[in-house]
Amino acid sequence: MSNFTATSRKITDLESYSPDSTPWDLVSELEDDLDAARLAAMAIARITEVMKDKDDAVVLQFLAYIIADHCMNAETRRGALFQMLHPNKKEKAE
Fold first, then answer.
1. pLDDT higher for 77 or 10?
2. Engineered SS bond to 35: which of 7, 29, 72, 80, CB 3.0-4.6 Å?
């Protein structure tokens, strides 16, 4: 659980974004949020392993799967944006 604490931020941290934040800044910071959501999905999945009511466990497992799947899709898009917005993109192309 220490990883979750290290990667999660409070919603109030969003107030610290400056109007001067660049798209690069924002896409870079998305990684921590996606990691936190992915870790939360893993925690939910772990909890279901010890639940006595298997019907309830299946519902939570489904939710964990949906969260993890959306995180994976968002990370794929974030990765594409990361590459497109990378400040050294021109240097890498050469």
1. 77
2. 7
